[in-house]
Give the backbone structure.
Amino acid sequence: MGKLKEAILLYFKGLGMGGADVVPGVSGGTIALITGIYEELLSSIKAIDLEAFRLLIKFQWKASWEKINGNFLVVLLAGIATSVLSLSKVITFLLKNHPIPVWSFFFGLIIISAILVLRNIVKWRAVTAVALALGILVAFLITEATPASTPEGAWFIFLSGAIAICAMILPGISGSFILLIMGKYEYIFNALNERNWLVIFTFIVGCITGLLSFARVISWLFKKYHDHTIALLSGFMIGSLNKVWPWKVPVEYRINSHGEQVAYITDNVMPGEYYDQLSENPMVFQAVLFVALGIFIVVSIEKVAKLRSTR
């Protein structure tokens, strides 16, 4: 019964990661980090190597499965896949119709997550502070980048998958936003909705390639430079707040695949300027409530995780 409860909890963590990964500006890696499974996820991915493959071809399936922590990966990936396939339309709808509460919720979730993650730093040094500042700067510059028009060839779809998956497992940097910058966010989601298997397969192969190589780098950094890595990842989270600021005004528009005019590039503004430019209610009270809700949820998750570890 205990293992079943753990599997259900892990599945819900996967749901959270998948839900975050479909939103440009929010990272599934952030959810993994604040729910306490980030390092286990990296270790499990890193275990998928030649030795695991040799065990597999020797029909030592149980040993191969245990080596890669197969139960953990399957349950987590099932949760992620469920979210990506089912929540993408819901989140897209909410962002379109209720943008301020949704972005406010993500703002609260990320800011408290960054603070809690920073508490894992054992000893602050000058280089640790530099790593934090560098993370903030890099994430901020990424969120300021203008989405581009890019090729639709298989090589670029593969490259998009490899780069996006690296961002998806980094707290604070959204793989979906990387796809947006590379001009492939809508293209990939249309492929999913239309079951374009060639594009989906090429993208997945790119994801697997990027994941297996990049996870080893991050895992090594955690082992050798734990505090600096934590500071850098926290910086990514803080820098990404620029993307999830609730009050945005459109600067440029484009026509989407449904023939609708949608905002292509936006600027962050204060609530007063938001009202002046758009003559729309900035919903400040609701925004504060949803920021508080995001903070409450993350703190609650951390408290539950601490209670479980204490037991």
